[in-house]
Specification:
single chain, about 475 residues, alpha/beta, Spore Coat Polysaccharide Biosynthesis Protein SpsA, Chain A, 3 domains, 11 helices, about 30% strand, globular
């Protein structure tokens, strides 16, 4: 029986700031390897044993999801849009309600989309090992054999150490909260504890029965949000009013920790949730002194250090560093002792309090038609680089407070300004007066890049009125 993957990709991942931010979190970045974490997750859960994936995300990420899946040739079965984050329990319940319509006896594998699994074949093997137990009515979780006393994970307690047998299904005694360092060391030494990976396998009917038994208060609001959901292009928007009444709670707390029909399949072939920069350092190739460099980064006489430059224009150099994490972005730099990796979220909170846009806004603003980044910002002007995908088009729009000057530097733009439509090629420019109704399109088969110079009294992204949009967005900065 094929398993339907349920990929959860609505989180913000603030512990990997400044690379991961609310507007563009870590699952959509290429932290390890060529593909993004989301793409690697979708590829890992594909093949003859799996159905097309069901995706749960939020409105801002819906086009990023479809674009990244298209790049790897995977067509999603459905994409459900959560109006707001309510943790994993409502999301899993919404996915089960969707599958109940088409495959009520089927199996569903719930997985975050920001994990690293170096050996996908080994992981698919343990999923297959847990399938029979899931078909028999068990709630199956996957436990990772711990390699060090980690305080950032929850744990799963077994009756006895799992040993080194072939993938097998074991009885799960209980869930254990994230421990302190001393307790984590004791559990590692005991040998009968596994890391809780937050990956679950069960049948649709079993998990729905579990919700009815252990979290009945979630069923009514999620069912109403699902029933009142509205199709939007290829997505289903869950009803926001009903969804807001669902409790903000994880699937662990709502169901798994209260259930008795629990099983676990141990997995020891390598795994990380990349829950901090120390985890990224462990998963990145290191030299003989434990130094990992990425991008335009250079280490001189360093030990046990991560140096990562995410912008080719930024040369990052470390000299004489030991146990240090440094991550450079175009607009922000993180420098931290590796032992304080879990405290990066404190930096995000501090930046939010002082009103710094770097706390949440990514330098590149991704849209369904492509992306843009601000190069220079002044009191009454802004210079942007805009990248438009082949065949894509911005909305037909106007602005109250700014005029724009576009200079095409790559490709060809089809430009509409009021009643005039014409092609603008490389090294040509066009002026868009204040209040003019305008649109740019890329009619070609290669990306189109232009430099936009804005001038005016207000340059915020919310100064936009949309008249037509091929992506069916509403008003506001992103629609």
């Amino acid at each position: 029986m094929p398993v339907t993957p349920i990929l959860l990709c609505g989180g913000s991942g603030t512990r990997l700031w400044p690379l991961s931010r609310k507007s563009y979190p870590k699952q959509f970045s290429s932290l390890i390897g060529h593909n993004t974490l989301f793409q690697a997750s979708a590829m890992r859960l594909s093949g003859p044993d799996f159905s097309t994936p069901l995706i749960l995300t939020n409105s801002d990420f819906r086009f990023i999801v479809t674009e990244q899946l298209a790049e790897i040739g995977i067509d999603p079965g459905a994409i459900l849009i959560e109006p707001e984050g309510r943790n994993t329990a409502p999301a899993v319940l919404a996915a089960a309600l969707w599958l109940e319509k088409s495959d009520p006896d089927g199996l569903m594998l719930v997985a975050p989309s920001d994990h690293v699994v170096p050996d996908p074949d080994a992981f698919r093997t343990v999923v297959k090992a847990g399938a029979a137990a899931a078909e028999a009515g068990q709630l199956v979780t996957f436990g990772i054999s711990p390699t060090h006393p980690e305080t950032g994970y929850g744990y799963l307690e077994l009756a006895d150490p799992p040993g080194n047998a072939e993938p097998t299904v074991l009885h799960l005694q209980r869930f254990v909260e994230k421990p302190d360092a001393v307790t984590a060391q004791q559990m590692l030494a005991a040998g009968n504890y596994l890391w809780n990976a937050g990956i679950f396998l069960f049948s649709v009917k079993t998990i729905l029965a579990a919700f009815r038994a252990h979290a009945p208060e979630l069923i009514e609001p999620v069912q109403r949000a699902f029933d009142a959901g509205k199709p939007d292009l290829g997505f289903l928007r869950l009803d926001s009013e009903a969804w807001a009444k669902a409790q903000d709670i994880s699937i662990d707390y709502a169901v798994m920790e209260r259930a008795e029909n629990l099983s676990v399949v141990p997995f020891s072939a390598g795994w990380s949730d990349l829950g901090g920069w120390d985890a990224v350092w462990r998963e990145t190739q290191q030299d003989g002194r434990g130094v990992a460099t990425t991008g335009t980064a250079t280490a001189i006489d360093c030990d046990n250090t991560l140096l990562r430059s995410e912008d080719p224009r930024v040369e990052l150099v470390g000299i004489g560093l030991d146990n240090i994490i440094t991550v450079a972005m175009p607009d922000a730099v993180l420098v931290a002792d590796a032992s304080r990796a879990q405290d990066v979220k404190k930096a995000v909170a501090a930046l939010k309090e002082k009103g710094a846009q770097q706390a949440t806004a990514f330098p590149k603003d991704h849209r369904p038609w492509g992306w843009f980044e601000s190069l220079v910002v002044g009191d009454r002007f802004q210079v942007k680089r805009i990248h438009v995908h082949p065949g894509a088009a911005l909305s037909l729009q106007s602005h109250h407070h700014r005029s724009e000057h576009w200079i095409v530097v790559e490709g060809t733009a089809k430009v509409t300004v009021d009643d005039t439509v014409h092609l603008v090629t490389e090294n040509q420019s066009v002026y868009v007066p204040l209040g003019a109704v305008h649109r740019m399109e890329n009619p070609g088969k290669v990306p189109m890049v232009l430099i936009e110079v804005q001038t005016g009294s207000y340059l915020g992204e919310d100064d936009i009125i949309r008249y037509e949009d091929v992506y069916s967005r509403g008003q506001g900065a992103k629609g």
